[in-house]
Design brief:
The protein has 1031 residues and is of the alpha+beta class. A hairpin with a 5-residue loop joins strand 6 and strand 7. Strands 23, 24, 25, 28, 29, 30 and 35 form a seven-stranded antiparallel sheet that branches. Strands 1, 2, 3, 4, 13 and 14 form a six-stranded mixed sheet that branches. A six-stranded mixed sheet has the order 21-15-16-17-22-26, sandwiched between helices. Helices cover 33% and strands 26% of the residues. Keywords: ATP-binding, Chaperone, Membrane, Nucleotide-binding, Transmembrane, Transmembrane helix. This is HSP70-like protein.
């Protein structure tokens, strides 16, 4: 099948003999597969789940197997029908080294390109003048050099030698600006050796966001050019590279599962030559599908900007993030699937604690498991519910904290505390490089010691990569030196003996903090779980929980008989496997995930962990729906720029998914304020808005929280925390400075509902047609948008509509009796309520589905087709003799605007981009990530083809037929379609010489052409060995 693939990719070649061979081989292979009587399974990955940890990345996949099966009907006249059976299963995806977890590292290496020759990104050859304008404007490597990226273990192995060109765990800094990262626990515990920048990425709305970026130097010293000797990548780009690597691993797994061996190909060709009748199996012969959907695990404490940035990173990699799953929730769901008969007890709620200690953080959650009633389980295929009861976390405690505890002890004893802080004190790149290598060596040795002490009482460690001077030892270390506990080798390396007792005594504070988190989680249940012994189950996951003393401390009080905590789940894989099952079982019907009907469903109930606010601005839009230059705010404060924030979804009190209606009253005809102006005095409080559009901006972030809480009174803040059914825009509105709302690390997402004037006119014309004998005037109107807090914790608006009430008045006594011109079948409820109910039903049908942005992450919300709802206050059977009120509703176009809009007292527009990238930047970065991927694919394809050609040449030259007669002359002999009677030895020699001379710089098409020729020769020799004649 690889031969057929090569023919297809190369466009059937340019030589006549090559086209003949390709045609012949494709005919033979396809007919053989059709004639095959053995089962043919096609394995495809429908969805991948990725757990981006600090020390390792785990990948699982929902893989389906498709097979044609024959069904025979019983009785007289048996009829055989063929159908397709699809089964699905969750499996772990192995990396190139066949490991189940991979270091989240990517390395950039630059090599000198062949003189006078450049490899194009599509696999051909060209000069630099032929490169695209985009490639020249955004160079990824210096002129005359080639870029090679490596991932996982290969990249991690390069880190000690090239720390400036290897980036590990970029997802840990996603969503951070430089200032927020350096002031947070992330920056304090893991200083980066790279030059960290905040590249001012231009936004489509004219603003800029402060993206946390890494500068990767082209070389440490010997490559200098006009490109400032480096390339800058944002944290989202680097994370997208890792996600793209995960997708490629899933693709390779599918390709390996669907590949046909050479023996299988030979058997299929024998079946074809024997004249076996086709059995209709050709429909299954197709290439594997590329995974398009992904589920990603995130910590519970991730803010909305970080979640959206992770969705954007997936979009850069060509993946649609269908759901973000919390790590502890993924593990809890995995437990429900593994031990359903134990955790789901009819008539009882079981409380189970999931203790997750990763490398950089700890999360402790308590979940309530309840079995679904039998009737509901049969009707809706719901097994039960998993509800979050309590959650506590610590963002500084984790496995890395124990590593640093050991490293800090060694640093103080043997290096005068100069290693761990050396990176921050480095003044030059050379100093930063050296300090990074020393720090990395010390932390790796500490991590190794911790792992050894998990199974042994003593660990013998040698600290490589740093010079130890006994003269600088602490007095305690000097005593250890005399007692031969430590030693300095002749080349200056430090060798020491470290015991488990020393480790436990030195890190006592960390063990106490870990146990305190367990107790805090129990206290957070407010008496639902009285103590540790009241838990029905206590599961621990995460690599940090392998420390024996930690398990012993956590188990204290769990069971009277001293039973240790439960370790049913796989510490590394539970979260990602549960995320896969949850995403597949709860997937919306619009996602074409095959085989999901076979997965039992669980109703998962979680809190929204971040507060969400909304501000409202009125304005005018241009013809294309973009914000016009004279957009103005609802409120004009007397002094200073302000933003009116209203709490929309409170944190820890909103069960997701949740919907909420935001209403804005519109100014009617002739409405004036007390001074006779058609302008609102207090904005959202008065609810009177003038303009053709309304801008609704969602805010979420720590700066917005602080600004809101600082301005809200104690009573208002307490009332705002009670998320009731109120939809009035005046509830809990707080004016905060615009600078506070425009935080650079916040999630800021503006939407614009426009076309209000046209909608009013449309509704008015409808009423006038229904009541031609009266005067129609607008009595009241409001714009309503529906906000959704999704299961992934990312809020957005879904639909907008205009609700208007028209008053119909008789024109004179002669026309005092009005007869409706037409009747309506509208239900006896207001139009807005009708749309509200429809929206609620639509949302209820997708309880556990994610409705994130489109594939590009920032695409405009689709425009709804205008629909109307009518309600009258009278019936159509009797004439009307007085004023009537007619209620109408029509949908409004709702778009994601380019930037949030506020105004000052001078009506100036201020763009607030927030942290997350705009659509223009996302498309630009996506193009760059795709260019890098294309370069990698071409490099890998060329390397694979060269190896295959070389292997084929070696195989042919080892056959007895090669030495049977002297090789033919070295002239250019054309190989015919019958290799058995041609000068094939000369052809093999020609290909071998060509590979030696041009193999390193040859194009993919040229390599494929030679590979096909070698495989034809190889097949002919095998046929000759079997005593047959080559086909």
């Amino acid at each position: 099948m690889k031969v057929v693939t090569a023919c297809a990719f190369s466009g059937a070649g340019t030589r006549p003999w090559y086209r003949s061979l390709c045609t012949l081989l494709m005919m033979v292979c396809v007919s053989a597969v059709v004639a095959s009587a053995s089962p043919l399974l096609i394995t495809e990955t429908e969805l991948i789940a990725i757990d981006l940890g600090h020390e390792s990345m785990k990948i699982s996949a929902w893989r389906t197997q498709e097979e044609e099966v024959s069904i025979k009907s019983g009785g007289v006249g048996t009829v055989t029908t063929t159908t397709t059976a699809i089964t699905g299963a969750v499996t772990m995806v192995l990396n190139d080294q066949t490991n189940r977890k991979s270091p989240p590292c990517v390395a950039f290496r630059y090599f000198k390109a062949p003189v006078g020759l450049m490899v194009k990104e599509d696999g051909g050859n060209s000069s630099e003048a032929d490169m695209s304008a985009e490639a020249l404007s955004q160079p990824l490597h210096p002129p005359g050099y080639q870029l090679e990226r490596t991932f996982a273990e290969q990249a991690q192995a390069l880190a000690p030698r090239f720390p400036m060109q290897v980036v590990c765990s970029p997802a840990q800094l996603i969503g951070y600006t430089l200032s927020s990262a350096t002031s947070s626990a992330v920056g304090a515990t893991a200083p980066s050796p790279h030059e960290l920048t905040e590249a001012q990425q231009g936004a489509s709305g004219g603003g800029a966001r402060r993206a946390h970026s890494f500068k990767i130097p082209f070389s440490s010293s010997n490559v200098t050019n006009a490109l400032n000797d480096g390339c800058v990548f944002t944290a989202e780009e680097l994370t997208a590279m890792l996600l793209g690597y995960a997708r490629r691993m899933a693709e390779k797994a599918d390709a390996a599962a669907n590949a046909l061996s050479e023996d299988d190909e030979r058997q299929l060709m024998d079946l074809a030559s024997s004249g076996v009748a086709p059995r209709g199996r050709a429909s299954l012969l197709r290439g594997h599908a590329v995974p398009q959907y992904a589920a990603l695990t995130v910590p519970m404490h991730s803010n909305v900007a970080q979640r959206q940035a992770l969705v954007d990173a997936a979009a850069l990699a060509g993946l649609r993030a269908v759901r973000l799953v919390h790590s502890t929730t993924g593990a809890a769901v995995q437990l429900a699937y593994m031990k359903a008969e134990q955790v789901l007890v009819p008539g009882k709620t079981q409380h189970i604690m999931v203790y997750d200690m990763g490398s950089q953080h700890v999360e402790v959650a308590i979940y309530g498991y309840a079995a679904a009633p039998s009737t509901l389980a049969k009707r809706d295929k719901y097994q039960g519910s998993v509800e979050l009861k309590a959650l506590v976390s610590n963002r500084t405690l984790g496995g890395a904290a124990f590593d640093e505890c050991i490293a800090a002890q060694w640093d103080a004893l043997y290096f005068k505390s100069s290693i761990l802080t050396g990176v921050r004190g480095a003044a030059t790149d050379a100093e930063r490089w050296a300090a990074t290598k020393k720090r990395g060596s010390l932390l790796r040795a500490a991590h190794k010691a911790k792992e050894m002490l998990s199974v042994n009482q003593v660990a013998h460690i040698t600290l490589d990569g740093m010079h130890a001077d006994s003269a600088l030892f602490h007095s305690t270390a000097q005593a250890q030196l005399q007692q031969h506990v430590v030693a300095v080798t002749a080349d200056g390396l430090l060798s020491l003996r470290y015991t488990r007792r020393e480790f436990e005594q030195e890190c006592t504070a960390l063990f106490k903090a870990a146990v305190k988190l367990r107790d805090d989680a129990i206290a957070a249940t407010n008496g639902v779980v009285a103590n540790v012994g009241a838990l029905d189950r206590f599961e621990v996951i995460g690599g940090g929980t392998r420390v024996p003393l930690l398990l012993q401390r956590l188990s204290e009080g769990y069971r009277v008989d001293g039973t240790m905590v439960d370790r049913t789940l796989n510490s590394d894989e539970a979260a990602v496997l549960g995320a896969t099952l949850l995403s597949v079982s709860a997937a919306s019907n619009v996602l074409p995930l095959r085989g999901r009907q076979s997965v039992p469903r669980y109703r998962v109930r979680e809190w929204l962990s971040n507060a969400v606010y909304v501000s409202i601005t009125a304005g005018r839009t241009a013809g294309d729906g973009q914000v016009g230059e004279d957009a103005k705010a609802i409120a004009e404060p007397a002094e200073g720029d302000v933003v009116h924030l209203r709490l929309l979804f409170p944190a820890y009190k909103t069960i997701v998914p949740d919907t909420h209606s935001v209403r804005v009253q519109l100014r009617t005809d002739g409405d004036q304020d007390e001074e006779g102006r058609n302008e609102p005095q207090r904005g959202e409080a008065t609810g009177a808005v003038v303009g053709d559009s309304v801008i609704f901006t969602l805010y979420s972030g720590s700066e917005a929280d602080e600004a809101y809480q600082a301005r809200a009174g104690a009573s208002d803040a307490e009332a705002a925390g009670n998320h009731n059914a109120s939809v009035s825009p005046t509830d809990h509105v707080v004016s905060v400075p615009a600078s506070a709302a425009a935080c650079t690390s916040c999630y800021v997402r503006p939407y614009i509902a426009h076309g209000i004037k046209k909608a009013k006119e449309t509704l008015k014309m409808q009423v006038e047609r229904q009541y031609p004998g009266g005067v129609v005037a607008l009595d009241s109107a409001e714009v309503v948008v529906e906000a959704v807090a999704t299961v992934s914790g990312i809020p957005h608006f879904t639909v907008a509509y205009l609700r208007a009430v028209y008053r119909v008045t008789p024109t004179s006594l002669a026309t005092a009796i009005l007869a409706p011109a037409e009747t309506t079948n509208a239900p006896p409820q207001e139009g807005a309520e009708a749309l509200d109910e429809a929206t609620e039903k639509e949302q209820a049908s997708a309880d556990d589905t994610e409705d994130t942005d489109s594939e590009e992450g920032q695409a405009d919300t689709q425009t709804q087709q205008p629909t109307t709802t009518t309600t009258t206050t009278t019936t159509a059977d009797a004439p009307i003799t007085s004023d009537i009120l007619e209620v109408r509703a029509i949908s409004l176009p709702l778009r994601h605007a380019a930037a949030a809009i506020t105004t000052s007292h001078r009506d100036a527009i201020t763009s607030q981009q927030g942290y997350n990238m705009g659509r223009a930047e996302l498309q630009r970065l996506k193009s760059r990530v795709q260019r890098l991927q294309t370069m990698d694919d071409v490099r890998l394809q060329r390397s694979t083809l060269r190896n295959d050609i070389e292997s084929a040449i070696i195989w042919v030259r080892e056959q007895p037929a090669w030495e049977a007669a002297p090789p033919a002359a070295a002239e250019d002999v054309t190989l015919s379609s019958d290799p058995a009677v041609s000068s094939w030895r000369a052809q093999v020699n020609e290909i071998g010489e060509w590979l030696d001379d041009y193999g390193e710089t040859a194009s993919v098409a040229a390599l494929e052409e030679r590979l096909v020729a070698m495989r034809v020769v190889k097949r002919a020799l095998r046929a000759r060995q079997r005593g047959g004649e080559a086909t």
